[in-house]
Amino acid sequence: MPLSVSLSIEGDTTVIDLSGELDAETAPDFHQTIEKAAGHGTTTIEIRMAGVGYMASAGLRSLVFAQQKIADNVTIKVVGAIEPVSRTIRTAGLDRSIVISDE
Amino acid sequence: MPSTTVIILDADPAPPPELLDALRTMDASLVTRTLTELREGPLELLPVADVLLAPAESDGDAVRMAVRRLRRWAGAPIVVVWTVTEFAALEEHVRIGHDYLVPPFLPALVGARLHSCSERAGLGRTLREADARAELMGYEKELEIGREIQAGFLPESLPVPDGWEIDVRFRPARQVAGDFYDVFEISRGRRLAFVVADVCDKGVGAALFMALIRSLLRHTAQNSGLQHLVAAGRAGGSRRIPVVGATPLLNAVTATNGYLTRNHLRQGYFATLFFGVLDPLTGSLVYINGGHNPPLLLPADGSPPAALDITGPAVGVLPDCVYTLGYAQLDPGDTLFVFTDGVPEARCPNGSFLGDERMLELLAGPPVSGKDVVDRMDLAVREHTGTAEQHDDVTMLALHRPRTARGPYADGTGHQVVA
Lengths: 103, 419
Prior knowledge:
Shape of chain A: globular
Distance between the termini of chain A: 25 Å
CATH topology of chain A: Transcription Regulator spoIIAA
Strand order of the largest sheet of chain B: 2-1-3-4-5
Distance between the termini of chain B: 91 Å
CATH architecture of chain A: 2-Layer Sandwich
Strand order of the largest sheet of chain A: 1-2-3-4-5
CATH topology of the largest domain in chain B: Phosphatase 2c, domain 1
Radius of gyration of chain A: 12 Å
Number of helices of chain A: 3
CATH architecture of the largest domain in chain B: 4-Layer Sandwich
Structural class of chain B: alpha+beta
Strand content of chain A: 35-45%
Oligomer: heterodimer
Structural class of chain A: alpha/beta
Helix content of chain A: 25-40%
Number of domains of chain B: 2
CATH superfamily of chain A: STAS domain
């Protein structure tokens, strides 16, 4: 199942909206978007994942990649992830550097 | 035999009517393109053609660049340059290897020349396909070599202590894998170390990091100074019993995490892993679960499995993070089932997952043997996947302590009678 990725700016937040499946095939699209978002220079990057039904480890790697690309003083938020997806993020321990929120 | 396809270069001057008539008479299919379209246009619009028909007035080098681009994506046409009066310009083209047509443009003459060009172009395309096939086979062969080398990073044989059974199933989704397992002795053979790990992502990148992570873990664990064999127990807990093998375990995981975060953070590769150290005499287990799917401890009496939850994050993500130790006990008849996400996330052709609930159903009841558990789960994964492509590597390790074990503590008589 393909992934649709959109990028927008809302005030001081860069919003990446994902829907579909985030796996080894689709993660490269997300990587490209992260690189673009990293260049925006906003203080927060919000990754909206409510439409992501499944995230494989390649998707987790994208989040680690995002942490590397995006400046330390920028907050990365994962918003609206369904329980299995947020559990995957928490199990790997990525919730220590990425904020996970429901809304 | 398909008819000849001719690209007519949309340039000034246009081909004379007699030449166009001759092309129509020989039933050639004609496409018109400008030089700019051929050199810069989208790849999917590049035509596959036998002949590129250009006026002698066109720039020889520019035509050559266009043909070079066509060769890579659609097969190279033979360039045929025509003229009515510009013979000096025609000579320039012939010098760089282009074919030519001059009046009279009689259908039979034009047809014969273009047919021969078309045969040459066809031969060129066949050669190109053969080259591409050979190249692909070369890659396949390299990947096969990669697979063989990677197999050398898995244990050749499993050191199974007396009174225990270890069963492993390892099915990579592709030729090279990101999953791995390892079993080896530490602390002068007094402890059994076992690892099940999943390097994120797939393919060659994951495989390279698998080799690195496996080597760092094993090397550090086996070379942790023996003077540190006895480590303090769970830090900060009420229990401060010295645990043999805990130091190599902590050292291995912490050092590997340190190495990866110091040297490879920007590449974004990491591994989730379960690293256990077993005392084969007592069945006591000390472990680190670094962000891995919790292994399931299946009790001998068939009561619900206990999950060995995470004790730290995945390895290679966070610099200077703290890993704590987990403790468990394997009594006679118990089985510890360690697996990677390829098991619960096995997908059937319509995309649904095997799932945690189904896994627990399949694992219900007292385990007969480790082999039985692994066989049952592997069959379930394969049946669930069915005709769908296997998406992820599947790795399982079952550590079983049989009731009728030969071990000194296991049958309730051996050790005690001797003592």
